[in-house]
Amino acid sequence: MENYLRDNFEVEPKRPSEEALRRWRSAVWLVKNPRRRFRMIADLAKRAEAEVDRREIQEKIRTAIYVQKAALHFIDGGKRVEHKLSEEVRQTGFGIEPDEIASIIRSRDIKGLEFHGGVEGFSRKVSVSLNDGVVSSDIPLRQKIYGFNQFVEKPSKPFLMFVWEALHDLTLNILMICAAISVGVGIATDGWPKGMYDGLGIILCIFLVVIVTAISDYKQSLQFKELDKEKKNIFIQVTRDGSRQKVSIFDLVVGDIVHLSIGDQVPADGLFISGYSLSIDESSLSGESETVNIDKERPFLLSGTKVQDGSGKMLVASVGTRTEWGRLMVTLSEGGEDETPLQVKLNGVATIIGKIGLAFSVLTFLVLTTRFLVVKALHNEITKWSISDALNLLNFFSIAVTILVVAVPEGLPLAVILSLAFAMKKLMNDKALVRHLSACETMGSASCICTDKTGTLTTNHMEVTKVWICGEAIVIKSNDSGNVLKSSIPERLMSTLLQSIFQNTSSEVVKGKDGDTNILGTPTERALLEFGLLLGGDLNIHWKESKIVKVEPFNSVKKKMSVLVAVPGDGLRAFCKGASEIILDMCDKIVNEVGESVPLSGEQRKSITDVINSFACEALRTICLAFKDIEDSSNNVDNIPDDNYTLIAVVGIKDPVRPGVKEAVQTCLAAGIIVRMVTGDNINTAKAIAKECGILTDNGVAIEGQDFRSKSPQEMKEIIPKLQVMARSLPLDKHKLVTLLRSEFKEVVAVTGDGSNDAPALHEADIGLAMGIAGTEVAKENADVVIMDDNFRTIVKVAKWGRAVYINIQKFVQFQLTVNIVALMLNFVSACFSGSAPLTTVQLLWVNMIMDTLGALALATEPPNDGMMKRPPIGRNFNFITRAMWRNIIGQSIYQLAVLAVLEFDGKHLLNLNDSDASSVLETFIFNTFVFCQVFNEINSREMEKINVFRGMFKSWVFMIVMVSTVCFQIIIVEFLGNFADTVPLSWELWLASILIGAVSLLIAIVLKCIPVGSSNHTSTVKHHDGYEPLPNGPDLA
């Protein structure tokens, strides 16, 4: 079976090939209800059509760009046709139509923009101040005139549509026809109402199956709809009512002032107001890979594009479906999401079992029919046929079809969706947003987590605690108002220090809604600004002192930020800050004790390096501040200098480790998951934090990215097993490490990332984990899971839920296969020997619902327990149905078949049934015993290896509700619905006997679990690096 599944039903968790997707679709056979089974499967035909539409739109956008470039040479602004304002727009006080705005933006009509007075004139036309932004009370009016920033989405399916889909089950349709015929013939032979009971019972049971199925599917769809909306909900920094605030992308309106920085997604079409070095990646919209520089001459920003570099402010001009991105989003939503590996694999299992079930179904019908004909021939009645004979044949056909209903485990692939939907909802409550279904599955197999340091392992609440300046290291305390530092350095140097802090920053000091002063920016920037404010500096005063000429924003490759400012007079001054070693290498001078710039000697350089290392060994993030005066401002200032700077100070910033991180790391190690820190920080800082978190062990290796890059492929292979910390790494180093871990070491790798440059590593990893707070939109878009609170403990929760999904599906498969085998064999053997099936159509339909929808609800939604994180991860190539599962399935099946066979052939004697209704009582008792065997086997399936199957059972409220509901409804069927279900009421002794026979399966399970089984083949062994005790590996232990 495993080889067949591996050959035909194997797909990659991320970016599966078109060939693999088509291969498993063609291999699927005998699907009872394609509309339901494939509801959460990607529609490849629609996807292909959507791709064609997307390319057409991109081509139109590219054409518009080229036409606009050519037309600029010929357009005469004086001959422009003026659009007439509609009465509705005029009455609201606006001076431009929404369609005219969309036309100007779409065609990048610079002349049209100038016709309206440029950006300033445009802002007057949409009644907004470029300083204070939109007035909140105007938002409903703006949404009415210019529209909402939402795209056209498919409406949610109503509940009745799910009922309709459930009714498309071919076997249920056949049974409904049989039931209708049975009612008609029954009434004709047995009269009203007796003749309708059999057929009506089938119809009522089908109705119950359909309703329960539709409710389950409908609830899943609502969960996915809610999660999908959350995935698209981006929060944007805007200026409204004169203050900075965060708003949802859905609440954005025309006239909003949006603040953009590296990695942001442009949330709507707009116009550039101001900014520095703003470059935009428009490849998602136009397909062109070349970045576009945005400035006053090229002010058009298009929705859906990404900020590649720089920062700026934008005036929102068009929103929603009036943007090109809005039109493109309609095509992007077509085709659905790729199916997960478990979905595909279980479709394969369902196909194999379905083929076996069909064979048994046909054989059962042939055996029953043959026996019936032989009996008629022996009684010389072969030529005499009555309506009763026709009803018998119809009943045989109904039983055969019902066996097929039970045999084809339609619920297997759907149980994966149910389990994933449940897990994703719970993870959302635990601050993890799963963007791709397969990630939840794959995370359960993760054998390695490459994590960032800042904000993930640490709190990201930074504070300057030490400063080295004028040859002296000074401890900074927040309650001393910087008096110690002020008294230690000359006034001239203090002025330069404050300039380097306030003028070389991407942060802003703004007033919030409550009137309080807030610092907006990265935690490092905030810490530096708070330090500057502590020293008595004022951001606004320093900004007014000099004009900023050019800004080079910080990114993870350069690891520095530079700014060029015009100082009073005719000179320029460059300020630079960033990674301490990099900035120190750029300096050839230093500020001495009296505030003068003097040459930096080799001895001083070594001394400063020692200071940096001492700060880093205290787990402080070290930042160097430097400046350079440029006398001749007539020189080209397109590039800020990278050498001959004067060092001002070394700043040590404290970022404490998050509470609970050490315990979370220990949980990972116990689960066989290696944790590696990959950070851009100083190696000594990284090592100090890694030791505090329990990541770096005595035998582990810590290395800098530069050293890692310089090693040969063979050296990399030798060092990676022991690699625990990589410091001063570039995004390419992270990508290289992930690639080698996956390709050479066959590890299942999870990677965290927050910056735009982390996108390749997030894309390459098996599971990309983006940070929800510090992460850019580019990082989130390339991630599979967004960690909303940036906390490493949340990553461990994702791993735990991933394991729960995998194990829950295994539990359900074990349970369902047991029921399949017993139901098939029982009916077939009974048909061969007695000429009748012990379980009627209604009874089999009820059993099918127990093992399908209700079984999936009970077993596929169990929450994780701590024991799941004390087992090793599952390898890449695994046998989904393990030897332990086969042992349990075969053992329980043998027990149930033996008991039911004894009851079928000698039950009357064993139970001392002598009354006239002995046959009906025995058949009811067999049915009741069979159901209770499944109830207790469902409890058994909660643990495939451990003996204590009751642990945590009473905390799983879904499981308990299903169990209680099953038992209650079984009592109702047996005691009160006898006419419909072919049952008779049982005495309390027989009820007790049924329950006890079912309960014996608990003892059988204990005996079975004591039988050792070898590990399955095709499991990949993860090699653990020295310093961690290697765990036994294999899916049997997972």
The share of residues in helices is: 40-55%
Backbone CA Rg: 35 Å
Overall geometry = elongated
Content of β-strand: 5-15%
- Separation of termini? 20 Å
Structure summary, number of beta strands: 26
The CATH H-level homologous superfamily of the largest domain: Calcium-transporting ATPase, transmembrane domain
Number of helical runs?
38
Question: What does this protein look like?
Answer:
It is a multi-pass membrane protein. It holds the Pfam family Cation_ATPase. It catalyses: Ca(2+)(in) + ATP + H2O = Ca(2+)(out) + ADP + phosphate + H(+). Catalyzes the hydrolysis of ATP coupled with the transport of calcium. This protein is α+β, with helices and mostly antiparallel strands and 1038 residues long. It folds into five domains: 52-147 and 252-333, Calcium-transporting ATPase, cytoplasmic transduction domain A (Distorted Sandwich), CATH 2.70.150.10; 150-232, no CATH class; 409-421 and 803-1010, Calcium-transporting ATPase, transmembrane domain; 432-458 and 658-790, HAD superfamily/HAD-like (Rossmann fold, 3-Layer(aba) Sandwich); 463-654, Calcium-transporting ATPase, cytoplasmic domain N, CATH 3.40.1110.10. Helix content is 51%, strand content 14%. Strand 10 and strand 11 (472-475) form a beta hairpin. Helix 15 packs antiparallel against helix 17 (411-429), helix 18 (437-443) crosses helix 32 and helix 33 (841-859) packs parallel to helix 35. The protein starts with a helix and ends in a 29-residue tail after the last helix. Mean pLDDT is 83; it is low at 72-78 and 1017-1038.
